Amino acid sequence: MSMHPPAPDLSALDDLPSRASLEAFWMPYTGNRFFKDNPLIVTSAEGCYLTTQEGNRVYDGLSGLWCTGMGHGRPEIIQAVAKGIQKLDFSPSFQVGNDLAFKVANKVKALTPEGLDYVFFTNSGSEAADTALKMARAYWRQKGQGTKTRFIGRTRGYHGVNYGGMSVGGIGPNRKLFGQGLEVDHLPHTCLAQNRFTKGLPEHGAELADTLEDLVALHDASNIAAVIVEPMSGSGGVVIPPKGYLNKLRAICDKHNILLIFDEVITGFGRTGHAFGADAFGVTPDIMTLAKGLTNGCVPMGAVVSSNEIYQTFMQNAGAEYNTEFPHGYTYSAHPVACAAALAAIDVFETQKMVEKVAALAPYFEQQIHNLKGLKHVTDIRNFGLAGALEIDTFGQEPTKRPFEIFRRCWDAGMFVRCGGNTIQLAPPFISTKEQIDELFNVLSDAINATQ
Fold this sequence. Notes:
By secondary structure, this protein is an alpha/beta fold. The protein has helices spanning about 30-35, 65, 75-85, 100-110, 125-140, 165-170, 210-220, 245-255, 275-280, 310-315, 335-350, 355-370, 400-410, 435-450; strands at about 40-45, 50, 55-60, 115-120, 150-155, 185, 225-230, 260-265, 285-290, 300-305, 380-385, 385-390, 415, 420, 425.
C-alpha cells in the first residue's frame, strides 16, 4: 500500500483563462494590468455567495455593486425573465409601448413618495442621472426661464459616469482625465472630524447645507436649474447626511425656486431600511433617479421619477398632442425583458418584506462594524441601514494602496468587500444572517491587521 497521498485533481484548472484570453476586455473601474496578471473570475452565484472559477465560494459583502440586495439567483426573477424573453424579446418604446412597461411604471409610482408620479425608463443609473439633468434644464426652458442651466452637486457625490453625471459628481479621480463638463458647483461633503465613528446619523453638519445660499448669492437663482445629491452617498464612501441636513436643502431649494434631485440608485429599494432614502430622511425631491435594486441587478434598468408639475409642464407646452414633448430616450428604454425582471423583483421586494429584513438586521450590522474601531489604519467608521464604510489611513502618498490590499486579502479568505478611494465599503445582502455578518467582520478584521 502506497504511503503517498493521492495526487490532487487538477482537471478543473484546465479551464482557467490564459493571460492572452483576458486581454480583449477593457475592464471598467479596474487596474487592468494588475487584474490580468492576477485575475478574479466569477462563474456563478446563488443567495449571498459568488463562486469563482476555482470553485471557491465568496460571500458577497457588496451585494454585487450595491444592486443584488435580495440575493443572487432568485427563482422568481429568473422564471419571469425566461418567460418574458420567450414571449416578447424586444419592442420599441418610441410611439409604441409594451404592456409590462406600464405595469412597472405604476408599481414604481405606488412605491415612491407621494407626489412623484411619472416614470421615465433608462438602462442604468448613469443614464438616469443624465436624463434627470436634461429634464431639469428642459423644464425651466418650458417655463420660460431658460437661463436656469447651472447645476449644484456635492463633493464625494457619485452620479454615474456619463458627461452630465460626471460633471455633478464630486469624486476627483472620476473627473480629472475628461476635461470640462457642465456648468456645475459643488456643496461640501459632510464628513466632519467631530462626526468620526458616529453610529447612524451624525449630529454635526446640517449647517453645511447653508453653503447653497452662498452659491445662490454668487450665481443668482435665475441661473440655477437644480441641486442633485444622493440622500446617502454610497460610492463616495457611505457619507451619511447629518440630522436635518436634507430638510435644509429642501427648504433652500423651495425658497429660491430650484429643483431638488435625489439620486437613489443605491438608496432605492431597501438599502436604508426604508423603501427609499426619501422615506428614511423624510424629504421628497422633485425628481428621483433609480436603478440597481429595480431589477435586483438581474437585467440592466434605470428610471427617473418626476413630480406631476414637471410632467404637466412638458405636456402643456408641446403644441399638437401628437408632438414629442420630451425628445429624449434610449433604444432599450422599458425593454420588455427588463420590465419582466422589474415586476418580479418588486413583487419579491414587497411580499418577502425586504425593508423589514434590512431594518431588523441593521442594528446588528451597526454593532459589528463599530467593533472594528481601534484597529490599526481605521480612521473613521460610518453606517446607515445595511451600508457601511471604513476610512483607511493613507500609506505614504498612496491613499488607495491599503484598501486595495485589504480587498484582495478578504477575497482570498472568501469575502468580497469594495475598495473605493481610501475606503472599504460594505453593503451585505438583505437576506444575510447574523452568522454571515460575524464572518464578514472577522475576515475583514484579520485582513486589516495583516496589512502593513
